[in-house]
């Protein structure tokens, strides 16, 4: 399929493409490649790719045969710069099947680990799943059955975040204000009320090594972890229409436990969500408009990383269960994954094979899917 790049982004992509191709042969590293301009200024660039083959029961165009689909799920270009050490700029783009979309674009003031300010388009403080993103979850698919905070695109929104990591990084706080949901004429947020997003997490064992207020759902035994996080998002007149609206409130608790037990690394993750507002939001969802539903949801997952290398990597089987229970009757959705990761270089190089079964009361369907995926970052 021919990829169409918006005209306003073509000069940027054309300018960066030769550099990106040159860097593709460099050793894999989560931070990409950094070019030092002088003692106080530098530029970094990297990329990430996730591709998969999937087969879904009755998913073929005929409706009665299994589908066979090869998908370019995520293709990202990461770019950042440091200016006088304490200032920064981050600009990331996401190449979809037929378009290139802005992912992140924010300026940074980072004077210390205790207090930092970002402004622009970014991930609002929220649940672990959203702060993991697709590359840093333990399973393959994003847990969209349970994690459904409002966003413009890929969990992002435009706004400002203040964050820090006191107590040697054991405590992580992040609080922000964002444009939020239903900001359009005729919808609930005609007055442009801001969305508040906040998260506090405490690491009872080792501090998590993820940068800023970001997270991962496994560190493959690099640290002994027991982290509890609390997130809350609130917006006045955040759901509904101008004539039938309500305040939006969503919150969750998430827990990550990971420990190297010798015979292997045990990873346990859990999360519980509450979306608390009247069932007045318009649907379907388009951008950061419509599609939200009140209710409860939860997630549990277990993974085990074997220490013995097999070839270039290690095996990590996992099981994950999700359930969403909207307030509306007969709308429950549940899904479980049974999978095996082949971990080559942490989150930078990994292969996955997953079976997923999804059961929806709303549609009365039970769908099973088999997927083989590969992700690489540099």
Structure overview:
With 378 residues, the protein is mostly beta strands. It is 5% helix and 50% strand. It has one domain: Porin, CATH 2.40.160. It has two helices and 17 strands. The relative contact order is 0.13. Mean pLDDT is 90; it is low at 1-6 and 8-30.
The rounded distance between the terminal residues' Cα atoms is 25 Å
Low-confidence stretches: 1-6, 8-30
Secondary-structure element order, N to C: HEEEEEEHEEEEEEEEEEE
Number of helices: 2
The strands making up the biggest β-sheet line up spatially as: 2-3-4-5-6-7-8-9-10-11-12-13-14-15-16-17
Structural class: mainly beta
What is the radius of gyration? 21 Å
Task: Let me know the average pLDDT.
Answer: 90
Please give the CATH architecture.
Beta Barrel
Number of strands: 17
Total domain modules: 1
What is the strand content? over 45%
Tell me the major beta sheet.
16 strands, antiparallel, barrel
Instruction: Please write the CATH class name.
Output: Mainly Beta
Indicate the overall shape.
globular
- Helical proportion? under 10%
CATH fold-type name: Porin
In CATH terms, the superfamily is Porin
Keywords: Signal
InterPro entries: Porin_dom_sf
Signal peptide: 1-31
Protein name: Porin
